[in-house]
Amino acid sequence: MRLGKSATDSRRGDGSSLRGRRGLLRRHLPPVPARVLDVGGGPGAYARWLADLGYDVYLVDPVPLHVEQATAAASARSQPFTVAQGDARALAEEARSFDAVLLLGPLYHLIHSEERLAALAEARRVLVDRGVMVAAAISRFASTVDGLARPSPSPGVRIDR
């Protein structure tokens, strides 16, 4: 299942990737007040939105600055969410404790397949039976596809190689 529009769309800075993923989440997440674990949730873009919708959101991120930013965002909201520092490969959360798990960042940053598989196994471990996992990853061919997707130079422009 494709989460964003393309690798180039997410770099445009117009929020199209975030909007596209929000639409996907609206269609596939269990109904409110489900418990959602946002693994690698950064400063809380999805956690804020999901909490505002009424979800019981827990955000985990390994970066202290992101945890600080998400904590500030959570405490400033009428619908707060929980924030903790943690690693996608070794989650502290209890087994079968979340109705949905989001992995919308960690798989981009974990370089080795063993690390990605560990993050996926941990997400599955904390997910209730028949829960929903939403994950995003980048193909090893992304840079090639991105280069091919870019428009070619204007006619008459010479590129020396």
The number of strands is 5
Number of DSSP helices?
Answer: 7
Beta strand %: 15-25%
The unreliable regions are 1-13
Kindly, what is the distance between the CA atoms of the first and last residues, rounded to a whole number of angstroms? 38 Å
Helical content, roughly?
25-40%
Helices and strands, in order, run as HHEHEHEEHHEH
Biggest pleated sheet? 5 strands, parallel
Work out the oligomeric state of the chains in this entry: single chain
Radius of gyration, whole Å: 18 Å
What is the spatial order of strands in the main beta sheet? 3-2-1-4-5
- Structural class comes to alpha/beta
Q: On the 0-100 scale, what is the average pLDDT? A: 87
Q: How does the overall form come out from the CA principal axes? A: globular
Topology:
Blueprint: H1 7-10, H2 16-28, E1 35-39, H3 45-53, E2 56-61, H4 64-75, E3 82-85, E4 98-103, H5 106-109, H6 113-126, E5 127-135, H7 142-149
Parallel strand pairs: 1-2, 1-4, 2-3, 4-5
